[in-house]
Design goal:
By secondary structure, the chain is of the alpha/beta class. The chain has 2 helices and 9 strands; from the N terminus they run βββαββββαββ. Strands 1-2-3 form a 3-stranded antiparallel sheet, with no helix packed on it. A 3-stranded mixed sheet has the order 4-7-9, covered by helices on one side.
Length: about 160
């Protein structure tokens, strides 16, 4: 068993001069920094007084699930001889807000559209989504099932 350690710095940048004196007196803006990486400008979802032009934690959570799945999927395709030439996923998620204002995700569905080099690779390409889900660190860390509705296409030869 190996441990992997991660570190990020979250810095609130939304003080408009009076701090959190009142609920409407501050912005939800913040920066997300990881050493040697591009800074991400974040906020809360607009439903929670956030800036709609910045990434919010819910966006990043959904992106984490989707990108983790994709990276494992590409790994297993490479090992299995399935040549992927394109991959796009329009992941969706449902977060339920409770009466007291807290909330939790109840569902994430990945909708990957994968393009493979040959028709003979289609079935294996579909099958490997299940294996990727079993290995995805993020999917293994949530308390709900991550659903998959994959489509596999064949690259047209020119």
């Amino acid at each position: 068993m190996k441990n992997h350690h991660y570190k990020t710095t979250i810095k609130w940048t939304g003080n408009k001069g009076t701090g959190t004196r009142g609920y409407r007196d501050y912005e939800r803006s913040h920066s997300i920094s990881v050493e040697n990486k591009t800074v991400i400008e974040g906020s809360s979802d607009p439903a929670f007084r956030g800036d709609k032009t910045k990434h919010n934690p819910e966006d990043m959570f959904l992106s984490s699930v989707s990108s983790c799945h994709m990276l494992w999927y590409l790994h297993f395709c490479s090992e299995a001889g399935v040549i992927v030439t394109d991959y796009i996923d329009e992941a969706t998620g449902i977060m339920e807000e409770t009466a007291n204002g807290s909330g939790y995700f109840t569902e994430v569905t990945l909708h990957p559209i994968v393009t493979v080099a040959e028709e003979s690779m289609i079935e294996k390409a579909k099958e490997l989504h299940h294996k990727a889900n079993q290995f995805c660190f993020i999917a293994n860390s949530v308390n709900f099932s991550v659903k998959h509705i994959p489509a596999v296409l064949v690259k047209l030869k020119k």
